[in-house]
Specification:
alpha/beta, six-stranded mixed sheet, 23% strand
């Protein structure tokens, strides 16, 4: 089947790839892993990248059916509510977001009224769920390890893997966030590797590996199995876990982890305004060392 359109909107500030996927014949689309700009020093938000997507969809006269998250990101804020307000569509994420909410609600001292049952999202997705996109079907794959709630989206011969895999010359995602697990990620990657070799893989981030001058975000199952510098067809689970755990000890926390997580587990919604009309985020001291 042809006429599946895939367009990447890349945010260099957070190195994030947002994908717009559409059945251009039926004029229906989905958005995967959107970005709301956030300046940590001022607390100011920006909808610049989201507005690019909105303008593109509007010009094409496409109907937005879904605003999908691969997980609750720790390196950027989602623009899902803003996109939904402008384009409609349901906000969806893997059902294990409830596990992430239970981990972080006490860390950020959320209000009692914040329920850790995922009700902030329009739909929670299970392994094997099928979502309609015009003449195409979106199949949900549960691919945890980076976080407990990570999912990938298989559309025709294309899989959108979020932070599970990076480009082969950059490797794989870290597993040291609360609820992450390297062995779990290993087995999730094997699920992706079990797809046909010619399956196109679209990654969630690119950081320009050493020696590479350009951003890239598309690879394939065959290329990953052959060339990934962290995990390939010849790396055992034991070898990968030892490597991943050792490497994660050397990594600094993402610059936007504190605002990102507490907003993203709310499905992108900001807390209610205080008595002075302003909204506030929490900055826990020594919670992440």
């Amino acid at each position: 089947m042809t006429d599946l359109t895939i367009k990447c909107f890349f945010d260099e500030t957070t190195n994030t790839a947002t994908y717009l996927v559409a059945d251009s014949v039926e004029k229906q689309c989905v958005i995967i892993d959107s970005v709301l700009g956030f300046d940590m020093s001022s607390g100011a938000t920006s909808t610049a990248l989201a507005d690019e997507i909105i303008d593109f969809v509007t010009a094409k006269k496409w109907q937005c059916l879904w605003i999908l998250e691969t997980h609750a990101h720790a390196d950027h804020l989602t623009a899902a509510p803003y996109l939904q307000k402008k384009l409609a569509g349901k906000i969806a994420i893997g059902k294990h977001i409830v596990d992430v909410q239970k981990i972080f609600k006490p860390i950020f001292n959320f209000e009692v009224e914040f329920f850790t049952d995922g009700q902030q999202f329009d739909q929670l997705l299970h392994e094997g769920n099928l979502l309609e996109l015009g003449r195409f079907t979106i199949r949900v794959l549960h691919t945890p390890g980076h976080t407990p709630a990570c999912v990938s989206y298989l559309i025709d011969n294309n899989v959108f893997v979020g932070d599970t895999l990076f480009m082969p010359d950059y490797g794989t995602a870290r597993c040291d966030f609360p609820g992450g697990d390297a062995e779990t990620l290993y087995h999730s990657i094997q699920k992706i590797f079990s797809l046909p070799d010619n399956t196109c893989i679209f990654i969630g981030h690119d950081y320009k590996a050493e020696g590479r001058d350009n951003y890239v975000w598309q690879t394939s199952v065959a290329e990953q199995k052959l060339k990934n510098i962290h995990i390939n067809s010849h790396v055992s689970a034991q070898e990968y876990v030892a490597f991943r755990n050792k490497r994660d000890l050397t990594l600094a926390m993402p610059k936007l982890i504190l605002p990102s997580v507490q907003i993203n587990i709310r499905a992108g919604h900001f807390p209610k305004a205080a008595d002075n009309g302003l909204q506030y985020l929490t900055l826990p001291i020594n919670a992440f060392k």
